[in-house]
Amino acid sequence: MRVIPTFSLFVVSTGDVLSFIGMTGGFRGFSPDGPMLAVGLRNLITLYTVPDGRPIKTLIGGGTGAVGFSPDRLWLAQGGPNGLALWNLSTPAK
Fold first, then answer.
1. How many angstroms separate the CA atoms of 82 and 34, rounded?
2. Second label for 3, Cα 20 to 30 Å away, from 25, 38, 75, 90?
3. Over the chain (94 residues), what is each successive 10-residue block's mean pLDDT?
4. SS (H, E, C) the chain
């Protein structure tokens, strides 16, 4: 039997449960206004739309560690034991 990774989010204000199927990773962070979720796994960070869980782009490099958006949602930072990585989200992923 194959197990498909899934995690669910509970929306307190509405009581809805949002399921993200096939999404893996250990470090997660929401954009300040809520429509984007960053999920880090090893040296990859994938950005997803909320609530449908559709992948937007994948960022490569940066190592492992917590992820966080800037207040204007134009930058994403990842910090970990090897330092800090910073991405400008207004430019296309390479």
1. 28
2. 38
3. 66 77 68 85 81 82 80 88 84 60
4. CCCCCEEEEECCCCCCEEEEECCCCCEEEECCCCCEEEEEECCEEEEEECCCCCEEEEEECCCCCEEEECCCCCEEEEEECCEEEEEECCCCCC
Confidence (pTM): 0.72
Token pair of 75, please? Answer: 């930058």
What is the domain-level CATH number for residue 40? Answer: 2.40.10
Looking at the structure of the chain, the number of domains it has is 1
pLDDT of residue 71: 93
- How many residues in the chain? 94
In a domain, 45, yes or no: yes
